[in-house]
Amino acid sequence: MRLQPAQRANTPSQMGEKLVTHDFRTGTRGFAAPEDCSMAVCILPGTELAFERSVKYHATLMFPADTGHTVAIFRQINKGVPHTNHDALEFPDGKIVLLTRLYEGQNATVLTLPSLPKTAAEAETQERVAYVG
User: Fold this and answer.
1) What is the pLDDT along the chain (133 residues), one digit of tens a residue?
2) Least buried of 31, 56, 79, 106, by fewest C-beta within 10 Å?
3) What is the pTM of this model?
């Protein structure tokens, strides 16, 4: 995701923080602070989120779909592939949905943050891809 200067590019979310899915008009969607949707919130891979309702998204050919789940873990996928979106949610059934496919305006709360990495491999899984570009 390409971040604007006013966005919290280097400030990770906090436990209990309220978030909302938002279309940043940059070709991608992500999480924002509900009180200021111009501010993107950085989510660390492994962060667990709880949504108010089951998560809705645009499936293939933009047909509406519902995950049937209200909890998910934030992941970054295809980190080695440039010029693509990496931010995604993994649901309890193993389904992975890119954030860019989520409906705008869905409210979530940060349940847990990832634990501190103990090895270099764990640190690498928590490292974020900064932006698409």
Assistant:
1) 433 434 444 467 889 999 999 998 887 789 999 988 888 898 999 999 999 999 999 998 879 999 999 999 999 998 888 888 889 999 999 999 999 999 999 999 999 998 776 677 766 666 666 554 4
2) 79
3) 0.79
